[in-house]
Amino acid sequence: MLKVSDLGSGLAIASLGALVFAQSRSFPAAGGVPVGPSFYPGLIGGVLFVCGVALAISSIKQRTALPVVALPGWTRKPRSVLAVGAIVAAIVLYAVLSAQLGFLATAMLVTTVLLLAFGVRWYASLGAALALSVVLHVLFAVLMRVPLPYGLIERMLP
Amino acid sequence: MNKTQAISLAAILLAGTAMPAVAQYPERPITLLVSWAAGGGTDAVARALATQIEKQLGTPVNVVNRTGGAGVIGHTEMINAQPDGYTIGLATAELATYYWSGTAEFTYEDVTPIALVNLDASAFNVSSGSEWTDLRMALDAIKAAPAGTYKLSGMAPGAGYHLALSGLLHSEGIDPTFITVVPSQGAAPGFQELASGGVDLVPSSLPEAQSMIAAGQVKSLAVLAGTRMAAFPDVPTVEEAIGKPWVAGTWRGLVAPAGVPAEAIAVLETAVEAAWNSDEFQTFMTDRGFGLTYSNSADFATFLANEHKGNGEIMGLLGLRQRD
Amino acid sequence: MNFLTAIQLVFEPTTLMVLLASAAFGLFVGSMPGLSATMAAALLVPLTFYMDPVPAIGAIVVCSAMAIFAGDIPGALLRIPGTPASAAYVGEAYQMGRRGELSKVLSVNLLASAIGGIFGTLLLIFLAPQLALVALRFSSYEYFWLALIGLSAATLVSASNPIKGIISLFLGLLLATVGLDVVTGFPRYTFGSVNLMGGVSLIAALIGLFAVAELFRKATTIQERLPPVPQVEGAILRQGFAVIRQYKGNALRGSIIGTLLGILPGAGADIAGWISYAVSRRFSKTPEKFGTGHIEGVVDASASNNASLGGAYVPALVFGIPGDSITAIVIGVLLIKGLTPGPTVFTQSGDIVAAIFVVFILANLILIPLGLLAIRAARNVLSIDARVLLPIIVMFSIVGAFAVNNAVFDLWIVLALGLIGWLMEENGFSVAPMVLGLVLGKIVEESFVNSMIKANGNLVAFVDRPIAGTLAAVFLTIWLSPLILRAIRSRAKATAG
Fold first, then answer.
1. Does residue B255 sit within a domain?
2. Cβ separation A40–C43 shorter than 8 A
3. SS3 sequence, B211-248?
4. For C122, what's the count of Cα atoms within 13 Å in the CB-facing half-sphere?
5. CB–CB contact B62 A100 (8 Å)
6. CA B64, CA B80: separation in Å to the nearest integer?
7. pLDDT of residue C424
8. Nearest by CB to B62, which of A31, A145, A152?
9. What is the pLDDT of residue C485?
10. Partners of B87 in the beta sheet?
11. Do strands A3-4 and A69-70 pair parallel, antiparallel, or not at all (unpaired)?
């Protein structure tokens, strides 16, 4: 992940704190009650702002000449980038497709994508994806009765 | 894959999922949504009912808990589900409050009522050390004291039991905002506050108070029901206590999203009525002290309309109403 | 209450089968990131419909004890806590595993869990009515101070820069404010999304911050084919025994703190682990070793989270008020079985209550052999090729996160917090205080707001009850004692010089 200097992260946290504080001012007051919904987020925003500024100041005092944002070494290795991207893709694909395709089809697709991106050969990937999807289905849907998304393949099951 | 291929693949996939389902309803498992957590009262009613509906329809009925946001998440899911009859929900009294509180945009008109299955009367519970010995005395004390002297807990402001009590207070000429609500997540933390001396009363159903009554920590001054409850013969009704009939509490009923085919609703209504009348369900509800009330789809619809109107008025009095 | 009848009730073949099956289920659920002990209990609810009361409750008791221990296993192996209760010491355990001390740390987890579990059970059996009465004296004022003491632990669980620790804690508190406000029901930071009205799910956050963030880190080194760390050989249990003997005081202290936190409604195993770890560090002779793979805090916290399980049954059985999220489910199951918790349950259904106690003891005894099997099996996980292991964990994390609330939405939370957690750890912000903030955030706000409402805004009410006043004094001592100690030392130096 990105390397951010303490100056950068301090300023980012301070801005977040200021934003949270400002937004909390727009919350309505609670009638007849001494503290409303804005009090606690306002307090949190205030503390984040102060701590962010303190972090930024201490970073300036140390005079370390780091760049504010730097790309770490792994981003230059294609295999690493692919693996990280595959994890993001796996979660996104599952979230987007599972309601339409059903659990088994989505799980097979997502696991295959992951295994291929991690450098497993395609035939091994397909086999492992099939096995893992079935195991997950049996564990969650059959044994634990978790209502996994229903779709293409589930329709064909008895 | 080129664009045309991609589109046709997507079309095939979608066609596979959107097949008409009414052919012979029900032909696959039904999901029963519950807006509250596993192990709670609504969950128990849903599971007991699901077991019996399963027997009637011959297809599995899976209870799914979609909790959070004071029930609004589960209720929203019930309304936004595919209107194919394969997703139904056990709605609770809160369904008719979200619109007024501004929490959600939907009203009772966005659901298809199937059947009302339960009404639980609220009770007026105070600490066993309380100086109040009957409801009349409590109401007089609340009326005479300055606003904010007395406090109640056991729910979020505007939840079923709070509205039930507020209605009673209003009918007695007491401004219901005189009693401050200390919010809590359910009856149990409310009783904790009651026992530790933090609040003066907890409106809840009698079964919820049973353990604390048995432990000598809590006494119940009246139940907002038409008749005394078999399991609690010592607790008088409001009519017996102050000479005025008053019935209020919370309810549970099966609903489906708006737009479900009428045939599916008819099948469900018949199955639910038979399930409700089964010995197993009747025994289960009586043993646990749940109130047994049944209304069919049409009556439940009228009931919901009345609830919607009544809640709007009481929430207006409480200052909880966010829209006209 | 007749323990002989109770033992007969438990040692029926069918009941024993149910208990053994729930034990295996608990070990599985606990060691899977995303499946917590509470969820295991919830998953058992439909099955308990068809059981007698003793196997029904026994299944939940056994399964939760196993799950809380098993949550330590993926923590030590992969730096992914299996349940929220293991989150406090996951960094410590993982570093020991990297040094080849996997058997040692896991056997300490196992033995301390059994000790804590039995201690909690004994207090439950012998002092339940008395302790429950004390717990009833806790109102929102007492909870407020308790929650602040809990938050103070954040400075002790984050090893590095204190400012960054506080920032991380407050980011967690901020996340906890998402959702409907407790007093007015006003939606805060929900951006118009109904799903966010329920707040950020703790389990989804945990999977994101620990599991997915760790998967990202491991993915960046995927092509390096790192060989598995060579492990210290030898009898597993013996390694643990030596540690427990050395730190027996810690095991006892963790057990006491865990049981007491379990008894208090609203605080359970999740919080017990954090507090005990922090207390251990605060009073350690070698606090500088904490955060470098030091076993001491692990002893305290492992005993503590299992001890809290028994404690939680105290108010649940005596008053029907759940001590944690698991007993909230247990009360529901008891009611379905026609058993209403309350003092009368001890007389009217004394045999069943005694049988539940027997199951508790039994659960903590069979924890040791079954736990050993689990540890042996788990050690093999590290020999699986990372290119296959990581995708499997990704899939379990996704399905686990979905299964908690049956919500696709939670996957977006997992992804977002996975990226945020990775970014934070990469830049010296420990995510541990953030999780603590998320765990305690709602209690802090609710207890404060409720207290203000009850006292009509009068702050004196926060300290003028005996327990509240004492807790306030403890809180102030925690923050002021380092300053006072420093002042005394400098004066002593001045007089000596």
1. yes
2. no
3. HHHHCCCEEEEEECCCCCECCECCCCEHHHHHCCCCCC
4. 9
5. no
6. 15
7. 94
8. A145
9. 77
10. B31
11. antiparallel
pLDDT of residue C86: 92
Tokens for A132, please give them.
Answer: 């893992």
Spatial distance between the Cα atoms of B181 and B152, rounded to a whole number of angstroms: 5
Q: How confident is the model at residue C366 (pLDDT cuts 50, 70, 90)?
A: very high
Integer Cα distance of B156 and C182 in angstroms: 7
**Do both B308 and B260 map to the same domain?**
yes
B176-213: b (≥16 Cβ within 10 Å) or e? bbebbbbbbbbbbbbbbbbbbebbbbbbbbbbbbbbbb
Place of tokens 């996957």: C411
Domain ranges of chain C: 3-139+203-399
B183 CB neighbours in chain C (<8 A) are 182-183, 446, 449-450
Same domain, B229 and B264: no
C220·A84 Cβ contact <8 A: yes
Overall number of domains in chain B: 2
**Measured between alpha carbons, how far is B231 from B288 in angstroms, rounded to an integer?**
9
How far apart are alpha carbons C214 and A83 in whole angstroms?
13
Q: Judge residue B256's burial from the number of C-beta atoms within 10 Å of its C-beta, 0-12 exposed, 13-18 middle, 19 or more buried.
A: buried
Q: Retrieve residue C475's tokens.
A: 């809180």
Q: Are residues B226 and B279 in the same domain?
A: no
Contacts of C199 in chain B (CB under 8 A): 68-69
CA distance A152 to chain B (A): 7
Shortest distance between the Cα of C347 and any Cα of chain A, in A, equals: 35
Distance (Å, whole) CA B180 – CA B178: 6
- What residues in A contact C211, CB-CB < 8 Å? none
The tokens of C296 are what? 């001491």
Q: How many CB pairs under 8 A join B and C?
A: 153
CA distance C163 to B4: 56
Residue C329 CA to residue C334 CA, distance in Å, equals 9
| Two structure tokens written together for A17 | 């704190």
CB within 8 Å: C452 and A95: no
- Spatial distance between the Cα atoms of B164 and B156, rounded to a whole number of angstroms: 13
Instruction: For residue C211, give the nearest of C393, C381, C391, C89 by alpha carbon.
Output: C393
Is C490 an 8 Å CB contact of chain A? Answer: no
Give the C-alpha separation, C30 to C116, whole Å. Answer: 17
Q: Is residue B9 part of a domain?
A: no
Residue of higher predicted confidence among B185 and A130: A130
B17 in a structural domain: no
Q: Provide, as residue numbers in chain B, all residues whose Cβ is less than 8 Å from the Cβ of A151.
A: 16-17
Residue C6 has which token pair?
């109770």
CB contact under 8 A, A100 and B14: yes
- Tell me if residue C402 falls in helix, strand or coil: helix
Q: What does the pLDDT look like over C411-434, one tens digit per residue?
A: 999 999 999 999 999 998 989 899
> Tell me, what amino acid is at C336?
I
CB contact under 8 A, C321 and B191: yes
Which residue blocks in C247-295 are alpha helix, DSSP H?
A: 248-263, 269-282
B128 and B210 housed in the same domain: yes
pLDDT at A121 over 80: yes
Pairing between strand B61-65 and B123-127?
Answer: unpaired
**End-to-end CA, chain A:** 46
Which residue range(s) make up the domain with B35? 29-119+250-317
Q: Is the dihedral of CA B229, B198, C449, C86 positive or negative?
A: negative
- What single DSSP character describes residue C101? -
Contact assignment for B17 to A145 by CB distance below 8 Å: no
Chains that touch A (3 or more CB pairs under 8 A): B, C
Separation of alpha carbons C168 and C92, rounded Å:
19
Q: How far is B82 from chain A (nearest CA, A)?
A: 11
For the segment B226-253, what is each residue's pLDDT rounded down to a tens digit?
Answer: 889 888 999 999 999 999 999 999 999 9
φ, ψ (nearest 5 deg) of residue B34: -130, 130
Q: Tell me if B141 is assigned to some domain.
A: yes
